[in-house]
Design goal:
By secondary structure, the chain is mostly helical. Helices cover 74% and strands 0% of the residues. Helix 2 packs across helix 12, helix 5 packs across helix 7 and helix 14 crosses helix 15. The chain is globular.
């Protein structure tokens, strides 16, 4: 089985998966909708208390089995009893990428438009109309989604250490540099300190049960839990690599990137009098309007959307690798096994179809894809966020905590006891509460 050639390669690849659009796009507007500083404290606490054992758990499942998400559970148990969980990982990655490439296409489109100075002179209402016009253009949206798929497939065409690892060592440092430069630029804006106060001065009166559950759900999402990415990368991990240290380093990187993203977006929003509760369109509608009033708006806009593109591609690479590795391993014992190149092509074709259907549904060109009043784009998002990811995280915690002792953390007696209690009781109960809340049962 191919593996990463260095410890830093594993860390950067795993962090790249986690810090994608979850940290750069979702984190700022989720913080804005949930009151700022107090929510961030909850998010960090959830990422450490719940995220650390769960990240370690998925890394350990992959590292000890030396398999991808397809073969790991069968290798550890010697039976097919848990094989359904492998298919859950595949479905999660497929459904996420079923709409994720559409959003990645938005990032690329906006970077191209920013470079051509298309946003000059537009206010927020005009930018809203501009985004809605683009969102209604099915051929253009499909084109940019396919471009995103081709770019990701080009990286995965090579072996793990020549493709994913090599590019992660370039993109992740570039991402950090761009984040830091943009954050400094935004903090120096007149009026930007209001955004910093919103971010870092907690108002605990805004905390309620729903805010706590939102923080927990966001930590799961930004850490790429329950979709098979960390299991697959754990299988590629060098045998001598310390799982605990790597997991903690990854979580710290994700938290830092998320805070930097918030420092970029929210000071700019406050400096120009916009609302931090704009929602998912905050990035694509509000920020270009902000950039038009800043020094060198074209350079600033291009830099920001280039940052979004880098973040998106680091995520699509890891999620698509789950599918590519899955098909390679799943067909390895058949009469017609797929090699890596064939698996990349097969996976790409599946994703072209799913993203095309998502675009057609989103733009109203395929009403037959509307289910329960929602288009396919929203249904894919809801299915993964509200069902498949919580199910995957819950089952993997129970798998290690109760059924497969050899996958448990072997640290000090106290640390191992805490880890086991978290996996057996605390985390499953918390996930069930999040799951019931997402279904509006609580």
């Amino acid at each position: 089985m191919k593996s990463f050639s260095s410890k830093i390669g594993v860390l950067l690849a795993a962090a790249g998966s986690a810090v994608g659009l979850g940290s750069i796009w979702k984190f700022p507007y989720t913080v804005g909708e949930n009151g700022g500083g107090a929510f961030i404290i909850l998010y960090i606490v959830c990422s450490i208390i719940f995220g650390l054992p769960l990240v370690m758990n998925e890394f350990l499942i992959g590292k000890l089995s030396r398999k991808t998400a397809f073969g790991a559970f069968r290798a550890l148990t010697g039976s097919n009893r848990w094989q359904w969980l492998s298919w859950t990982c595949l479905l999660s990655s497929t459904f996420i990428l079923g709409f994720y490439f559409v959003v990645t296409g938005w990032c690329i489109f906006y970077m191209v438009e920013a470079a051509s100075n298309s946003f000059a002179g537009m206010d927020a209402s005009q930018l809203t109309a501009y985004f809605n016009t683009f969102e209604g253009n099915a051929p253009l949206m499909i084109l940019y989604a396919v471009i995103s798929i081709v770019l990701t497939a080009a990286v995965l065409w090579f072996d793990v250490n020549k493709g994913i690892e090599r590019l992660s060592k370039i993109l992740m440092p570039l991402l950090f540099i761009m984040l830091i430069v943009m954050a400094i630029h935004m903090v120096l804006l007149d009026g930007g300190t209001a955004g910093l106060r919103f971010l870092f001065e907690p108002d605990f009166s805004k905390i309620n049960a729903n805010v706590i559950l939102e923080a927990m759900g966001l930590s799961f999402f930004t850490l790429s839990l329950g979709v098979g990415v960390l299991i697959t990368y754990g299988g590629y991990m060098p045998k001598e690599q310390n799982v605990t240290r790597t997991s903690l380093q990854m979580i710290i990187l994700v938290i830092i990137v998320s805070l930097l993203a918030g420092t970029i977006v929210l000071p700019a929003v406050f400096a120009f009098g916009f609302s931090p509760t704009e929602g998912p369109e905050l990035t694509f509608v509000t920020l270009p309007a902000v950039f038009m009033h800043m020094f060198s708006p074209t350079i600033t806009s291009v830099a920001f959307f280039a940052l979004m593109c880098v973040a998106a591609i680091t995520s699509t690479i890891s999620l698509m690798e789950v599918m590519v590795a899955f098909f390679c391993e799943a067909t390895s014992e058949t009469k017609h096994p797929l090699n890596r190149h064939q698996s990349v092509i097969f996976t790409s074709l599946i994703l072209v179809v799913t993203n095309t259907l998502c675009v057609l549904s989103l733009t109203g060109h395929a009403d037959w894809l509307t289910i329960m009043g929602k288009n396919l784009f929203d249904n894919f998002n809801d299915l993964v966020t509200n069902f498949l990811m919580p199910l995957g995280v819950l089952t993997m915690a129970l798998f290690t905590g109760w059924f497969v002792p050899q996958t448990r953390y072997q640290g000090s007696r106290v640390a191992s006891f805490i880890y086991l209690v978290l996996l057996r009781w605390i985390i499953p109960i918390a996930i069930v509460i999040v799951f019931l809340n997402s279904l509006n049962i609580l």
